[in-house]
Amino acid sequence: MNENHDIQQVIRFTVPWKADRGEQEKRNVRSFLREEHGISRSLLVELKRAKGIRLNGVPTYLDHPLAPGDTVELYLPEEKSENVEPEPIPFFIIYEDDYILVVDKAPNLCVHPTMLHPNGTLANGVVYHWQRQGISRKFRPVNRLDKDTSGLVLIAKNQYSHQQLAAVQRAGGIIRYYEAFVHGQVREDTGTIDAPIRRKADSLMERIVHEDGQWARTHYTVLGRYATFTHLRLKLDTGRTHQIRVHMSYMGHPLLGDDLYGGERMLIGRQALHARMLSFPHPRDKRMLSFEAPLPDDMATLLVAAHNKLSFR
């Protein structure tokens, strides 16, 4: 992709040949972008308003017919970063290209500014990182992690990428694996928690398992059992707020350090939860990407200490 940081991003599609002559003749700019490339109606409306759709280099309209070999271009306007102030907040980049940014978020770092944390967030650091490259963009996280949860966060770098990845996420095409330390000994080596979650009636933050809640399902695998905790790998089929924390508490094994849901902070000062692996199709060429982030220092240190205690028994 050719990109001009000072003006806008340009995404190009070449119209391929179709064996069905009737389908070929019915193809126009709108159907090509909507049906063959999954461009949302809202994004098309925005691009049309900004005269950001071109056919073979010339501004066009959505009903214009297409022929094999035509080039359709989308000119995505540069954007201001809303109210996120650039700040030199350090963060670790796993991968970055013109469409996406994947970072390994440290624990105790908010993803986005809130009333309690208006600055000093990952968003502030990412906007600063882009500003130093001469890029002005909105901060668009595809997945979000709690402040105290560490690990992989996927960020879309433009409207097109965010719309494509959001559609993949709704269809369950973004695969996420977490690792957690939970209190006690989880008896079964593998299992599934299928229990709906909703907000607790008297709380703005806390969630509970309740029959009136939204469907939520979590799969777990035991990676190790130690004197006071169990090390789990978890896979999410849904992405409810606090899902893993709520489900493990409901199961009777709250996360270490998660005092909101019954955990204790004797061994670690935050919920022992890490977004370990993320897999998804690239928004532009649809090739599957997979990324992994090692356990952060606090969880890694605790795991080494647990292993060492076992070795002396």
Automatic annotation (TrEMBL):
NCBIfam families according to UniProt: rluA_subfam
EC top class named in words: isomerase
Catalysed reaction, written as an equation: a uridine in RNA = a pseudouridine in RNA
Family designation: Belongs to the pseudouridine synthase RluA family.
Organism: Aneurinibacillus thermoaerophilus
InterPro entries membership: PsdUridine_synth_cat_dom_sf, PsdUridine_synth_RluA-like_CS, PsdUridine_synth_RluC/D, PsdUridine_synth_RsuA/RluA, RluA_PseudoU_synthase
Function according to Swiss-Prot or TrEMBL: Responsible for synthesis of pseudouridine from uracil.
Pseudouridine synthase RsuA/RluA-like domain mapped to chain residues: 100-249
Keyword annotations from UniProtKB, A to Z: Isomerase, RNA-binding
Gene3D superfamilies: Pseudouridine synthase
Keyword RNA-binding attributed: yes
Highest taxon above the source species: Bacteria
Signal peptide: none
Protein name from the UniProt record: Pseudouridine synthase
Ranges that cross the membrane: none
Enzyme Commission number(s): 5.4.99.-
This protein's record includes keyword Oxidoreductase: no
One Pfam family per UniProt: PseudoU_synth_2
